[in-house]
Amino acid sequence: MEAPLVTLQSGPREKLRLAFAVNGEERELLVEPYKTLLEVLREDLGLTGTKHGCELGECGACAVLLDGELALSCLVPAVECGGRAVTTIEGLRDGPELHPLQAAFADHGAAQCGYCTPGMIVAARWLLDRKPDATRQEIADALAGQLCRCTGYQQIYEAVESAGRVLRGLPPLPPVVAAVHGEEPHGR
Amino acid sequence: MMRLPRFRYLAPASLLEAVKVLGDLGPEALPLAGGTDLVPNMKRRQQTPANLVGLRGVAELRAVSGDAARGLTLGAMTRLAEVERGAVAAGWPALARAAATVATPAIRNTATLGGNLCLDTRCSYYDQTEEWRRSIGYCMKREGETCWVAPGSDRCWAVSSSDTAPVLCALGAEVTLRSRGGERRIPAADLFADDGIRHLTRRPDELLTAVHLPPVEPGQRTVYLKLRRRGSFDFPVLGVAGRVRLSAGGTVESARIFLGAVGSRPQEARAAADFLVGRRLGDEETVREASRLATQIAKPMQNTDLTLGWRKGVAREYAARALRELGS
Amino acid sequence: MADDREAAPRPGPRALDDDRPAPRPGAVGPAPGLAAVGKPLRKVDVRGKVTGETRFADDYTMPGALHMKLVRSTVPHARLLSVDASAALAVKGVRCVLTGKDFPIAYGLMPVSQDEHPLCNDKVRFVGDPVAAVVAADELTAQEAAALVRVEYEPLQTIATPQEALATADPRIHDYGDAPNVHKLVAFDFGDVPAALAGADQVFEDRFFYQGNTHLPIEQHAALAWVDPDGRLTVVSSTQVAHYVHKALARALALPPARIRVIAPPQGGGFGGKTDPFNHEIVVAKAALVTGRPVKVALSREEVFLCHRGRHPTLMRMRTGVKDGRIVGHSVETVLDGGAYGSYGVASVHYTGALETVTYRMDRYRFRGCRTFTNKPPCGPKRGHGTPQPRFGLEVHLDKICEKLGVDPAEWRIRNAVPPDTVVANWMRVRTTGLVACLEAVVKASGWRERRGRLGRGRGLGIAASSYMTGAGISITFGDLPHTGVQLLLDRGGGVTAFCGASDVGQGSDNVLALIVAEVLGVEVGDVKVVTGDTSLGPVDLGSYSSRVTIMMGNAAIQAAERARDRLAAAAAAKLEVPASRLCFAGGRVFDVEDPARGLTFAEAVQRAEAQAGTVGTVGSYSPPTPTPRYKGGGVGPSPTYSYSAAVVEVEADEATGELSVEKIWVAHDIGRALNPVAARGQVVGSVYMGLSEALMEEQEFRRLPPKLSRALVHQAPSMLEYKSLTFHEMPEVETILVEEPDAMGPYGAKEVGQGPLLPIPPALANAVHDALGVRVDEVPITPHKVLAALAAPDRRYGPAAFPDVPWPEPLLVPPPWEGGDGKATNDRKRERRLPGAKP
Lengths: 188, 328, 840
Ligand SMILES: Cc1cc2nc3c(=O)[nH]c(=O)nc-3n(C[C@H](O)[C@H](O)[C@H](O)COP(=O)(O)OP(=O)(O)OC[C@H]3O[C@@H](n4cnc5c(N)ncnc54)[C@H](O)[C@@H]3O)c2cc1C
Ligand code: SF4
Ligand code: FES
Ligand code: FES
Description:
The complex is a heterotrimer of chains A (about 190), B (about 325) and C (about 850). Chain A is an alpha+beta fold and about 190 residues long. Chain A contains five helices and seven strands. In chain A, strands 3-2-6-4-5 form a five-stranded mixed sheet, with helices on both faces. In chain A, helix 2 (about 100-105) runs antiparallel to helix 5 (about 155-165) and helix 3 packs across helix 4. Chain B is α+β, with helices and mostly antiparallel strands and about 325 residues long. Among the domains of chain B are: about 1-55, Uridine Diphospho-n-acetylenolpyruvylglucosamine Reductase, domain 2, CATH 3.30.43.10; about 220-325, CO dehydrogenase flavoprotein, C-terminal domain (Enolase-like, domain 1), CATH 3.30.390. Chain C has a seven-stranded mixed sheet. Chain C has a seven-stranded mixed sheet with strand order 32-8-13-14-15-7-34. Chain C is globular. In chain C, helix 11 (about 410-415) runs antiparallel to helix 12 (about 435-445), helix 14 (about 510-520) packs parallel to helix 15 (about 550-575) and helix 17 (about 675-695) packs across helix 18 (about 760-775). Chain C has 19 helices and 34 strands. Chain C has about 850 residues and is of the alpha+beta class. Among the domains of chain C are: about 30-55 and about 480-620, Aldehyde oxidase/xanthine dehydrogenase, molybdopterin binding domain (Aldehyde Oxidoreductase, domain 4, 2-Layer Sandwich), CATH 3.30.365.10; about 60-155 and about 220-270 and about 275-305, Aldehyde oxidase/xanthine dehydrogenase, a/b hammerhead (Aldehyde Oxidoreductase, domain 3), CATH 3.90.1170. In chain C, about 65% of the residues are buried. At the A-C interface, helix 2, helix 3, helix 4 and strand 7 of A face helix 1, helix 12, helix 17 and strand 30 of C. Bound molecules: flavin-adenine dinucleotide, iron/sulfur cluster and FE2/S2 (inorganic) cluster (2 copies). Iron/sulfur cluster (SF4) binds near residues 123, 139, 141, 147 and 196 of chain B.
């Protein structure tokens, strides 16, 4: 069938021009319409920090910020990202210093295998950007779309709380260590 | 990595262009809103449109106008994250709550109200990959003949699983559908049909452009209670949506109750609503009888999460909890 | 740094009374306090994980790589008649299609179960069994072409359950096994249990069911294979055991092992699900050999569900005789649904009985285990391998017994705990045990004595305890070779590189390696570079499972580091003219303890040693002590030392709907010593999470269509949305208590921590539900409909009604230690286990 006239279109095997900002840098490339933002980030731009565990919106591993909002890169066709700004885990820090969230995840044991971690940190960043003093309930609500199979989530709460403090100019929380039987708990 | 099938991508820049494209392509095209339903379905090859019409560039679909007194009109591309907050939360809290319980925060940031209403019906024999469905010989909804949920049946029982749909029905909201030929505005409840395959009355060449919430009336109370396994991710296995208008003395002057996720469309519990009129929600006997009447119409099938027997068993309890909340 | 050290002597590893060569205590004299061990330091590999720089298997690419997609069986059981790939080959971009004909050689994890083909040859055994592989320029093209491969099947009867397997002599899923469609039968009598029950005051009987569940690591399996310019086949794969993949590749592809290199990057979670060698790993390697190009395969989530190797669905019957409040006889029978292949199944079935004895005293013990074949994805090892099921049964069974006896279940457990240094009824040797301390800790922390039974209807507390191995006593593939090795290379700049075959699945093994080497050599953890998970760059390690890495790799690391320290000490002694026995390694220096100013930097010490006797490289290795059981099958269960755990769960149960909300969990774990207290707590909480997720919702369930209309048997919910696991919202606060009683077997006294704390959670939840509502759910998961059904049942119970008839073989008769005997079976003289490390 003849394609109708619209502003922008592609054939099924044609590539479309995509110009967008990734971690603050302007990028321009040709992409197949079937590719999601996840695939373009990982395969075309080599930004493999963004992970994937389902490609169906069911795990949160692929989370990125799209125009500042938390989004699942596996559900967004890349061709829909023209003119938009994407932030991935690689864009969190600027220079060798870790972002407070990254430092807190490292110090508090909030990354075990580390596979959910990029998505988790990006989601936490989205939360702290709006609410650096988020309560546990708000953390749970904001991160409820991120599955982690390693940590049991507890140390993630602690890391987000600690990072929130740093972002508010307060000292970080010391990592919580378990109480040792017969001793007073050390750490916090 | 699961991949989308190949398709032609079109990005109209205006409403006019969008309806023209849909008119030209008809059933060969599907609108793409947030994509949070369509993209997974396409990756699983449940839906394989040759053309995707991206609505991102259609500014008209994002417009929001009105207020609590005059009623609110939400463009179809209003994101669920916006529905959760602001004017909707203040005037129609049940709708905000329904939006807030959809999926996960990241999905709600992308998903749209229009897409939520047009959400494909769901079934555990259908929301599976191509390979999986091939392994059961497919089913009636796509590529097969038999309905595995009810093998003798000549219809599909896939479940309307939208959280906002029953609420909009209960609120008496309306929707506008637009095609090249013109526009029609219909009650939200009339958007849905009781069939798992043809579950919408929307024609392929029509675009859902807006949702109209009626003005907030004095004494109006709304509720939405969602039953599901976990506190996020999960689709409803039962949604109880209600709107009542209470007199100053607390008697019910009017009531509408819809149940979600227990049929191929939101189910209206008219007997229960009629029963409530003139009665008081604070009365436990009333609540019990109304919830019995309400759940009579539920037709859950064995094609969602959790066992059928349990879902049937607790529906009444959940309906009662929703009604109690309305009265409190 | 050096000043705030504790004065405690370092409890180095030491042999008890066995024939294991003890790691050398080291030539240098004064033992300093611990600099790195026990400190809440950042894990060495964590930076890459928080920045996204860590490369997981799917993050590897090669220029010009092709992509592979497997064509999987769509029928559960059939003879494979033909595979027609012509339409697929005609697709533009398709490079080749492989089929079973390309893979004549079978492989398998255990020497006794070589029952898999990389691509099916003559039969398919479950929906998902791979029959062909399409290799194309890109993944989408491979997927599109895969759909065009035509496979012709001759269907066979579907065998869906253990009951059907036991009742079906023909067709057989495999032509081997202890009975038709029965993979393995085991039977042991440790003393005469029927006689003990006859003499008991009371005899209790229960039946339990533990549903199957899967690992669900967030990372899906992926592998990339290529042939190096030097002709070496190289495979990067998300495997927990590079070494097993290496072995399987050599066997199935008939290649010399020396020409294969397997790289296991860090895994994004494994939990046991990445320990088998997998068909896709072998097929992708073959594809690289055939095409001469790098080839990549990345499994979809559904395919990961089909790989499975997860928790065996297990039906159990327990019988216990009690006299004067103690167990005089205990009997366990288990029937496991093994799925379509052997995998670790022989070990799994033994594990459903092996650790029943190491927590509470029992005079006699009887165990029967049966693993059946069914047309479903194969089961295998998942965190706790084979032991969570009988642990659930035992701990709930005991709760009921205590209720009948009118004793507090916590008190009973404390009173009946196996004491340290005991050889128990089935000859497992318990060395240190923190069981009582764990129980006391959770009783205290949870307010058990004051609160239990007093929280009002709908709220309850439940307790349970458990034990797990710290590494298996016998390897499943080896005879007398060490289970692990560590190699160190010290450079002139003072850097240390530690090579080991182990790979980090997220449990922190890279960190443990660096930490221990740093501790022994007195350098900073950051000065130790670890190179792990590469069969060409490190000695064999048997992998990240059985909670074995810390103890085994840790001890090997100590040995290697102490050997390096000895060399440095000798050279430094000569240079400083101080006796080596006075030298101390700390703070990046080697110095005289009596005159700390007199010393060398660590780098200088390395240079002196290099000048003295050449490049400084040392090795260490580890073999566990010889197990005490000497009967056939006694190789499953022995461990250098056991960890212990106890937990109290507080639940809120909705009587109207049966829904459960877990409010809080207290857990205590006997860890020996926490090498890193932050990481240790993380492992405990993570284990608790997984146990709770299994207990509340996880189910690897299958769907059968009406048999009159279809033979289909498919995974009910192979997706992360419908395979339910806990989110932030369902996970309660966990209060963790570590019991630190250093064990001589462990490096610096450490025991395992990654699996044990999972075990008490499901039974503690079931017991809490009973406390809340007075009902018993004798099944896992404890879903709302089961709670409601139990509330409605006359006996207030939901659980299996029957236990199938199993053709048990004649049992091995092994008298428990206190009834004489020597750990051998009295009726199996010829088949007694050859020592030291015969096959199980
Ligand atoms: C893990 C997961 C969990 C989920 N949980 C829930 C849940 O709990 N509750 C729930 O309700 N949903 C849930 N969803 C489904 C989905 O995210 C939401 O329904 C969402 O609102 C769909 O909106 P969308 O804009 O993304 O729709 P899209 O995917 O873009 O579209 C959905 C359908 O509507 C059509 N459509 C979209 N816009 C228009 C329009 N303007 N006019 C005509 N047709 C249109 C599309 O062609 C398509 O067929 C879940 C999805 C995932 C992946
Ligand atoms: S209800 Fe029946 S026809 Fe409809 S999707 Fe489910 S199985 Fe298919
Ligand atoms: S990959 Fe799982 S949500 Fe995107
Ligand atoms: S740290 Fe492994 S999945 Fe979260």
